[in-house]
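Practice set, problem 2.
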Amino acid sequence: MHLLRNILLAKIPLVGSGLVDWPNPVNDSYGWHFQYLTIIGLALAILTFVFGSLADIIASRRLFVIKNALSVCSAPLEILISLLYWGIRAIDPQLVMPAWVVIDPWADIGFHLAPALFLLLDLLFFSPPWSIPPLSALGVSGVLAFSYWWWVEHCFAHNGWYPYPLFELLSPAWRGVLFVGSALVMTGSTVCLKWVYGRVNGWGVEGPIVMRKKKGAEK
């Protein structure tokens, strides 16, 4: 897991230099690139892996607990980002990227797919099971979704434009529908990740896996 974390952490200077050195109107705007859910999600993923790496290096249980708490937010969020980005991009790339954006395919994957994959691997093979119930997952997702909605509108009040062209096309009511739907999808991804974890690791799964464990214990 050290390798996966180091790969993601190595992206920090590359991402930072790429955003700053590449001339674009966002560099001088209110909110900078943190207007983009992609950048917020990437920052949260990096923070998750920073705490995970520190927990491994100094063998700190407290840091490991913090890392796992962050993972409950960052992993479903990155799954949501990947689903929204690639789904909307398949319909029309200009709905998620302004006309002035030109992105390398590998950078595109690095921003919008790799973090979700790395967090998924970390969850499945190097983390304890999540104990968050569906209702709490909905609460976390709702807070993140509506906080981002407020942030987007706040930045719009200063800049006069939205980070994603799709927001420009939607009325306030339909933007609300989009954010409510995103919260529900993120909640669903949390529930699905818990289910996949159980299938892979035999946690909370009744059936052959449990029976094999019981038979082993009888011997």
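Problem 2, part (b): a different protein.
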Amino acid sequence: MAFAWKASGLTYNRYLAVAARVVRRSLKEEPRLQAEKRGEMDLRFAKWQNGKQGENKNLATANATAMADHADHGQS
């Protein structure tokens, strides 16, 4: 018998993210706010050139910018 999350087409990581969100939303106000803050991520990256680290950038912001640039170039 397959796991329900697998049968529905979810990856295990996605299943865990959904389950964590459900648990956080079921908490009372104060513990819920604290749990939601812990659930936020701030991923950063830096491009390396010639052995030197470039500027640290927020991954979500850089991804959104790249997606917008790609959409603009794709419609031209």
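Answer key, part (b): The chain is about 60% helix and 10% strand. The two ends are 50 Å apart (CA to CA).
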